[in-house]
Amino acid sequence: MNIFRLAGDMTHLFSVLVLLLKIHTIKSCAGISLKTQELYAIVFATRYLDIFTNHISPYNTIMKLIFLGSSFSIVWYMRYHKIVRRSYDKDQDTFRHYILILPCLILALLINEKFTFKEVMWTFSLYLEAVAILPQLVLLQRTRNIDNLTGQYVFLLGAYRALYIVNWIYRYFTEDHFVHWITWVCGLVQTLLCADFFYYYFQSWKNNMKLQLPA
C-alpha cells in the first residue's frame, strides 16, 4: 500500500459517499444515470468473486464489501424507493448500456492474463469499468445543468482512476515485475473519457459558475 493507492481508494469511497448522501438526505437521484449504476454493480459483482475465498487483508475485504453493498443499494433506491425513483430522469437516461456488456465479455475471453473463470471475470470487470461512465456522461450532456453533489460525484469517480494510474507508475519503478498492461490500458481509457468533464468542472470552479456541459 502506498500513498497514491490509498488516495485512489479514499477518492473512490468519497464518490460513493457523496452519491449516497444525495440519495439519503435529498431523496433525489436527479442527474444520476441508473444505467451507469447497473454497470458498476456488474463490475463489482464479477471482480469480487473471491471475496470469501482469497483473504488479502481486513482493509481489502471491507472495501470490497462497501463497494458491493453500495452499488446494489444505489440501484435498488433508484429503481424501487417510492420517493427517490420519482426523481430519476428515465427519458434522458436512454444510453443502451447493455451493448457494452457483450463486447467487454468477448474481449475478456480473448485477451486475459490467465484463462480461468475468475481471471476472465476479473478482466471483464476491468473492461466494463473503463466504459461504465459513458451513460452518466451522456446524461449530463443532455441535462446540461448539473447540481453540486452530482458534479462532485462524477469528478471523484474520474479522479480515483487517475490516482490509480499514478499508483501503477509508482509501483512500476519501485516493484520488480509490476507490469499489468490490461489494467493500465483500461485505467487510461476510463480517465480519458472523463477528461472533457474535468475541463468543464475546473472551469466552473475557477470562475465560480454553475457546472454546465456543452450539448
UniProtKB/TrEMBL annotation:
Keyword hit for Endoplasmic reticulum: yes
**Entries under InterPro entries matching the protein:** ER_ret_rcpt
- Recorded GO terms, molecular function? ER retention sequence binding
Q: Where found?
A: Endoplasmic reticulum membrane
Q: How does it sit in the membrane?
A: Multi-pass membrane protein
Show which residues constitute the signal peptide: 1-31
Name of this chain's protein: ER lumen protein-retaining receptor
Q: What is the lineage of its organism?
A: Eukaryota, Viridiplantae, Streptophyta, Embryophyta, Tracheophyta
Q: Which gene encodes it?
A: LOC107936117
